[in-house]
Amino acid sequence: MNVVCETDRLYVRQFNTQDTEFIVRLLNNESFIRNITDKKVRTDADALRYLNNGPLSSYQTYGYGLSLVLLKESKTPIGMCGLLKRDELDYPDLGYALLPEFCGKGYAIEASSSLIKTEMDTYSINTILAVTFLNNLRSNRLLNKIGFKLKGQIELYQAQNNLYEYSRKNC
Is 27 exposed, middle or buried (0-12, 13-18, 19+ CB in 10 A)? Predict the structure, then answer.
């Protein structure tokens, strides 16, 4: 298990090609499609393509990427969290998503906070961005709680979004 970081309750580890079943489940969840986008990942083959072209490619190129979030005690996968490097943004941005049954329990805050600290230190990153839909109230609250500052709005992928920034000087 290639662990990126851990907390009292969670492991955050890099994805591997055996995670296809979980990816299909997470990416087809109604809240993922509504709050992030429909990635059109419906089969294990689609999920394998997603993993190879997304997280696994990002690990190769940047060292970081989206990672699997698991409950420490049971090793149950509950979501993903990580940094992404998008061509449209000047800095890496934080991404996260949990299965609905694990929302509202502090797991996203826990995973994100630990991951930010670890990745900023490991890769000498001074600034991280986050982009979220204006009406995604949960994500907007979460970003404020973990120290992101609202910088304004940005149009990304034909949608208006809030743009947040986290930097070492904010801490």
Answer: buried
